Amino acid sequence: MLPAVLAALLALPGVSDDSPPKPGAAPAVAGTLPDPLVCADGTPVKDAAAWRDKRRPELLRLFESAVYGRTLVGRPERLRFVLRDEKKNARGGKATRLRVGVLFEGREDGRQMELLVYLPNRAKGPAPVFLGLNFDGNFDTTEEPDIPLPAHWVNGLFQSGHDHKPREADRGRHRAMFPYDLILDRGYGVATAGYGDVEPDEVGRWKDGPRGLGPPPGRGDWGALGAWAWALSRAMDYLESHPRVDRKRVAVFGFSRLGKAALWAGAQDERFALLVSQNSGKGGVSLMKRPVGEPVEHLAGKDLGHWFAPDFAAYSKNEQALPVDGHALAALLAPRPLLILSAAGDAWSDPEGEFLGGRGADPVYRLLGTDGLAAREWPAPQTLVSSTIGYYLRPGGHDVTLDDWQATLFFADKHLADPPTQK
C-alpha cells in the first residue's frame, strides 16, 4: 500500500523526492522535434547570416503565434523613473540600495512597478547586475525593515494568509531565494521587482498591467508571461541608464513561471548578456513534446492559460503539433551564455527535458562560434557544466537554493567579460 501512496504523491506538482529519474527512462520526445537549423521552406541554415536574417525571425514569430503571443506595446513614450529612496550603506555597508519607481505611464497613479536595486560599494567601476522578478513583493526577498510592503497584488501562496495581500509577518520569507550578500560579495549587483506589480497573476486581470496600455489582446496576442517579460525590458531600460551599472553585463534570471518570462524576455531583448533558467520547466526550456511532467493541457487550462496566447490551447493533448519547443527558445538566446538550473526531484518541470532543451539548442550555438553544451549525456547531480550553454542539476525539488546561486555565480564569473574578482 505504501509504495502506491508514494507513487500517487510524487505524481502531484510540487511534491518530489531527491532521486533523479534514470536518463532515458522516458522517450526523448513524442513526435518530431523541429530542427532549429531548417527554415520553414525547408532551406537549411548553413551560416550565421542565414540564422540572423531568416531562421531566427521565423522562430520568434512561431513563439509569438503558438505560445506566448505577440507583444503589442514597446517602450512607452511616457516611461519615467523616479528615485524613491537611496541608502548608501545598505547590507552592512556592502551596497548602495535604490528603490526606483518605474512608471509605465509617466505618473504615480498609473501602471507601474517598484524596482529594488543593490549595487556593490566595493566595485571600482560599473558593476554587472542580475535582474529578475519575484513572486511576493520586494519586502519578501529581504529582512530589511525599511522596505515598504507593496501596494499591489502578491502571489501569497505560502504566506500567512492566502488573499494576495502583503503582510508584515511575511517580511523576508523568501530571502533564501535572493542571497543578496553572497551576490554582492562576489562583485555583482542585483535588481528585482514583484511580478504582481506588473500584472496580477489571475485570469482577466490583463487591463491592470502593460497589456492594458495597448489594444485588447486577441487570440494570437500576449498573455501574462509576455507582460512580465516586457517589464524585465523596462527594468533594463532603467539599469542601462545608471552610471554604476555595466549595461553590457546585465544577466536576467527567473524561477518557475518567472523563468519562462525571463527566457522570453531574453529572446526578444538582446541587451541581456546572460540568461539563467531556474526550473523554468515546460513552456520554458524543457521539452513540451516529452511525455513527462507538466502537460500543455495543464499549462493552457483554466488556471494557467492566461500566461500564454489563447491559441496555445490548441496544443492541449496535441503537443506533437507544436511548431516550436524549449530547445528553440534556448536557441533564440544564442550566442549568449545560458545556464539551465534543474532539480532532481522536480518531476513536474522534467529536469531531463530541461537538459535536452539545452542539447537541442547546441547546434545553433556551435554554428555561431561557441562551444554549445559540452555534455552529451545528462550530467550527474551537483556537476556543473560550464560551457556556453551551462547545466546544473541539484538534489531537491522545485525551489531556488544557495547551491543554485553558487553555481550561477561561478558560471557568470566565467562568461561575463571582465568578471569580478571572487572574494
From TrEMBL:
Would the keyword Hydrolase be found if you checked this record's keyword annotation?
Answer: yes
Question: What top-level branch of life does the organism fall under?
Answer: Bacteria
The answer to whether UniProt assigns keyword Signal to this entry is yes
* Coiled-coil residue windows: none
Q: Where is the 4-O-methyl-glucuronoyl methylesterase-like domain?
A: 221-369
User: Matching Pfam families, A to Z?
Assistant: GCE_fung
What Gene3D superfamilies does the database record attribute to this sequence? alpha/beta hydrolase
Q: Name one GO molecular function term.
A: carboxylic ester hydrolase activity
Q: Which InterPro entries match?
A: AB_hydrolase_fold, GCE-like_dom
Q: Kindly indicate where the leader peptide sits in this chain.
A: none
Query: What are the record keywords, sorted?
Result: Hydrolase, Serine esterase, Signal
User: What protein name applies here?
Assistant: Glycoprotein gp2
> Could you tell me which species this protein originates from?
uncultured Armatimonadetes bacterium
